[in-house]
Amino acid sequence: MFVYHEQQLVGHSAKEMFGVISDIERYPEFLPGWKRARIANRQQRQWEVEQEFCIGPWCWHVSSIATLEPYTELSIQCRQGPFKNMRVAWALREEDDYRCLVDLAVQIDGMMLPGFVARRLLAVSNTNIIARMQHRIAVEQFGPI
């Protein structure tokens, strides 16, 4: 089992952070390993998501369900891919008008990948994701840095 956890108080509102976190189709623009992401079916608070991750020459298709609670929570449960079970949980707690606490937890069980590929995938995923989300907000507000 692989567990990744990251928590950070950020200088953005929960609404701003949720806007970036829930913009799954743009993940390939700023998160390593994401080649493509598409929302195949968008219901009000539950989306079917198709994604492709690549590490070097290896690529995997992942189907998942994203459940949204606007401005407070986003959870992603993989239904198909190189894992028996993968769950990504984002939680946001507003601290004041300009800051929120962001909590990201990733749990992967039963990776069905060769060992060296699994280690590389985990190394890529362990890359301060919250900071990448904040950077994307800054670029949208102020332009490329």
Describe the protein's architecture and organization.
With 145 residues, this protein is an alpha+beta fold. It has one domain: Alpha-D-Glucose-1,6-Bisphosphate, Chain A, domain 4. Helices cover 26% and strands 50% of the residues. It contains four helices and seven strands, in the order E-H-H-E-E-E-E-E-E-H-H. The protein has helices at residues 14-21, 27-30, 115-125, 129-142, and strands at residues 2-10, 34-42, 46-55, 58-69, 73-80, 83-94, 100-111. Strands 1-7-6-5-4-3-2 form a seven-stranded antiparallel β-sheet. Helix 1 (14-21) packs across helix 4. The chain is globular and about 45 Å long.
Global geometry: globular
How large is the count of helical segments?
Answer: 4
The string of secondary-structure elements, in order, is: EHHEEEEEEHH
- The name CATH uses for the topology is Alpha-D-Glucose-1,6-Bisphosphate, Chain A, domain 4
CATH homology superfamily name: START domain
CATH domain class name: Alpha Beta
| Cα-to-Cα separation, first versus last residue | 37 Å
Note the topology.
Layout: E1 2-10, H1 14-21, H2 27-30, E2 34-42, E3 46-55, E4 58-69, E5 73-80, E6 83-94, E7 100-111, H3 115-125, H4 129-142
Antiparallel strand pairs: 1-7, 2-3, 3-4, 4-5, 5-6, 6-7
Q: In brief, what are we looking at here?
A:
By secondary structure, this protein is of the alpha+beta class. It has helices at 14-21, 27-30, 115-125, 129-142, and strands at residues 2-10, 34-42, 46-55, 58-69, 73-80, 83-94, 100-111.
